[in-house]
Amino acid sequence: MLVLTRKEDESIMIGDNIEVKVLDLKESQVKLGIVAPKSVAVHRREVYLAIQAENAQAASAAQEIDGISNLIPR
Predict the structure, then answer these.
(1) Domain that holds residue 73
(2) 3-class DSSP assignment, residue 65
(3) In a domain? residue 2
């Protein structure tokens, strides 16, 4: 893990096209701005994990449907 210290209005670059900028500092919160191409998904971690769980559940359901359809003679 890379650990960096940034002040308000400072930023870091990830690769050539993703910028993470510190917009505001208040008590125990940091407000970040992220500039990234539309092709790069940017989510809060809890939203990302929920999406991953939903995708895994959908894939599992699709496999169950495929398994059931193999039982039906054609």
Answers:
(1) 43-74
(2) helix
(3) no
**What SS3 class is residue 59?**
helix
CA pair distance 39, 63, nearest whole angstrom = 28
The total domain count for the chain is: 2
Q: Burial letters for 47-64: b for 16+ Cβ neighbours within 10 Å, e otherwise?
A: eeeeeeeeeeeeeeeeee
Terminal CA-to-CA distance of the chain, rounded, Å? 54
State pLDDT tens for residues 7-63: 999 999 999 999 999 999 999 999 999 999 999 999 999 999 999 999 988 888 766
> Across the beta sheet with 29-35, what order do the strands follow?
11-14, 18-26, 29-35
Question: Does the residue 1 lie in any domain?
Answer: no
